[in-house]
Design a protein that fits this description.
CATH architecture: 3-Layer(aba) Sandwich
Structural class: alpha/beta
Distance between the termini: 61 Å
Shape: globular
Number of strands: 5
Largest sheet: 5 strands, parallel
Order of helices and strands: HEHEHEHEHEH
């Protein structure tokens, strides 16, 4: 004889279903702000979404495109592209962006907190170069967006409006992410990364000389 569903089991079922159906949209947030700078995370260069970044820049009111990223293996680029920022910048030029409007901001190698290190490098460059900004939009990939929004907002502080754009992750179907091993891996990894970002007390000046 089957036992009737209890209130607790029904609630758990509803919560579980809501999580499955909404978590990707929660993480892969698109929240643009009025901005004159588009920031592209360098590792996007490994995805077809780099074209979306170029389109975003060309149809927006941006005056400057900044790529940020750390060292890469030589096999990934050419001798003149030693980091993902330079690699992304080169690809964006090939896609039609005027190289005079692109700044490739290299981030020293760090073993942890790479997104936060990129955000701090951007903050330091804006300060040191005297570049004025009304706001920045950060272009990243899919469910990494929520984490990027948290960390770039924290690094840049309340004086600079920060938005985020989630490029398409073609490695899995976002509407049925639970149907593939890749989708499950990405969602849970990015969820943990986001929770870490909102709870861990990141220092104001992370050492960018760490290895």
């Amino acid at each position: 004889m089957r036992r009737p569903l209890t209130y607790v089991s029904i609630t758990a079922l509803v919560v579980g279903l809501a999580f499955v159906l909404t978590i990707n949209d929660f993480l892969a947030i698109n929240r643009r702000v009025e901005a004159n700078i588009l920031v592209v995370e360098g590792w996007v260069s490994g995805y077809s979404a780099i074209r979306e970044a170029a389109d975003e820049f060309m149809r927006g009111q941006y005056r400057l495109l900044i790529t940020v990223g750390g060292p890469i293996d030589e096999a990934e680029g050419n001798p003149d592209q030693t980091n993902s920022a330079m690699l992304a910048a080169g690809q964006l030029q090939e896609l039609g962006i005027d190289k005079r409007l692109i700044v490739a901001l290299a981030v020293p190698k760090v073993s942890r907190h790479r997104t936060y290190a990129s955000a701090l490098a951007l903050r330091n460059w804006l300060r040191d170069s005297g570049t004025q900004t009304t706001g920045v939009n950060v272009f990243t990939i899919g469910p990494h967006a929520r984490k990027s929004l948290v960390l770039f907002s924290r690094a840049l502080g309340p004086g600079i409006a920060v938005g985020v754009i989630a490029g398409t992750d073609v490695d899995y179907d976002p509407d049925r992410w639970w149907m593939s091993a890749r989708g499950i891996y990405v969602i849970f990894r990015k969820l943990l990364g986001y929770l870490y970002a909102v709870t861990w007390p990141f220092p104001e000046n992370l050492s960018l000389n760490a290895t």
